[in-house]
Specification:
The chain has 87 residues and is mostly beta strands. 0% of the residues lie in helices and 51% in strands. Strand 2 and strand 3 (71-84) form a beta hairpin. The chain starts with 22 loop residues before the first strand and ends with a strand.
């Protein structure tokens, strides 16, 4: 959108990330406040798992997180990971 005229304009797409690793590390923490990602809070870790990275043929424009009975799936750009889970 052109902010001056408020008219739609064609946008340019710029890729800002590249995932070239075969696996990703996923960590879930029991913490509610925001903290610096580089400050390790190991006593709050509730999950740490290494999962394979899948390269997607289509681009996922928005960070997408889905959960079903078998996995927590996270996708963005052309990268997807799935953390297996069961109940």
């Amino acid at each position: 959108m052109d902010f001056a005229s408020r008219e739609p304009v064609k946008a340019a797409y710029e890729r800002s990330d590249v995932c070239v690793v075969p696996a990703a590390g996923v960590a879930a923490e029991a913490i509610l406040k925001h903290y610096n990602i580089y400050d390790k809070v190991k006593d709050k870790d509730v999950l740490k798992v290494k999962v394979p990275v899948k390269k997607l043929s289509d681009v996922v424009e928005q960070l997408t997180i889905k959960a079903d009975k078998s996995a927590l799936t996270i996708a963005w750009d052309q990268t997807e990971i799935a953390v297996p889970m069961s109940f």
